[in-house]
Design a protein that fits this description.
- The protein is α/β, with parallel strands linked by helices.
- It has eleven helices and nine strands.
- A five-stranded parallel beta sheet has the order 7-6-5-8-9, with helices on one face. The chain has a four-stranded parallel beta sheet with strand order 2-1-3-4, with helices on both faces.
- The protein is globular.
- The structure holds N-carbamoyl-L-aspartate.
């Protein structure tokens, strides 16, 4: 279904596609657990073009490719490359890089920039985050994590907490979850509420400002830091910090089998004290992310 396609948007993952990739991710986890090198993507080369800082996402893409026997050429600081310094268009950069590799994973601080490069590219381009726009592979690994820990997505009550306005991860999660029978509880101050463009695609949701009132109902507690780099001033970002801290005290009211997800990095919203809570899954998610990206690569290459 995804063979040969660009992966630019969370909306490309309808229910069937998402479940298909999650099924493959479970198989990929077996490869990871076996400790053996796979040669599924032997001979393939991926370029990772990162115009915005990244730790997890770039390593995760590259690890996924390496684990499947493919190879990687990487630039973690594309803004300092000759292309960017000489104002080459993203279309041209896409055209050029795609003459050398079989797939491109790209991150950029501007919404829509990954799609622009994909226009010029002759090989599939995978969106590793485009500004406040979308982050489909993070949402994919989040969905895989929910499936893994809860056994299903349907029937769950999912709390999406924090900076819903600027967090591409939280926006992407809402979009992917809209294909399932879930109740979404959107928890944010009004100024950081989810944009209408995403909200209009949701079926069953409510918006609240305080997590304490709803935590008891949540099967999934999905948090992300205030995206301070996307605010006009630091003061405006700071105004919202510390409002949604998942303390052990708060977790006493949560379900025994709830799961706490976070794409990381975390700030004050996830104090270290809850790392030992068995419901805290954010570090395990990093491992799940490698399996999910291995699965996505296999589907994009049509070898699943
Ligand atoms: C997220 C991102 O870059 O959007 N991180 C990630 O991909 N693991 C979340 C964030 O930066 O807060």
């Amino acid at each position: 279904m995804l063979k040969g396609q660009n992966i630019l948007s969370s909306q490309q993952f309808d229910r069937e596609t998402l479940l298909g990739v999650c099924g493959t991710a479970a198989e990929m986890e077996k490869i990871l657990e076996s400790g053996k090198q796979s040669d599924l993507l032997a001979g393939k080369v991926m370029a990772t073009l990162f115009y915005e800082p990244s730790t997890r996402t770039r390593f995760s893409f590259e690890t996924a490719m390496n684990r499947l026997g493919g190879r990687v050429v990487s630039n973690a600081d594309m803004m300092s490359t000759s292309s960017a310094k000489k104002s080459e268009t993203l279309w041209d950069t896409g055209k050029v890089v795609s003459q050398m590799v079989d797939v491109i994973a790209m991150r950029h601080p501007e919404k829509g920039a990954v799609a622009e490069l994909a226009e010029g590219s002759d090989v599939p381009v995978l969106n590793a985050g485009d500004g406040p726009g979308d982050h489909p592979t993070q949402a994919l690994l989040d969905m895989y994590s929910i499936m893994k820990y809860k056994g299903t997505i349907d029937g769950l009550t999912v709390g999406i907490i924090g900076d819903l306005k600027h967090s591409r991860v939280l926006r992407a999660q809402c979009q992917m979850l809209s294909g399932f029978d879930v109740k979404l509880v959107l928890i944010s101050p009004q100024e950081l509420a989810l944009d209408e463009d995403v909200k209009s695609g949701l079926k069953n949701f409510e918006e609240v400002e305080s997590i304490a009132d709803v935590i008891v109902d949540l099967d999934v507690i999905s948090v992300n830091r205030i995206q301070e780099e996307r605010f006009p001033t630091q003061e405006e970002a700071d105004k919202h910090r510390g409002k949604f801290v998942i303390t052990s005290e708060l977790m006493k009211s949560a379900k025994e089998d709830a799961v706490i997800l976070c794409p990381l990095p975390r700030m004050e919203e996830l104090p270290k004290e809850i790392d030992d809570d068995p419901r805290a899954k954010y570090f395990d998610q990093v491992h799940n992310g490698v399996a999910a990206r291995m699965a996505l690569l296999a589907h994009v290459f049509g070898i699943n």
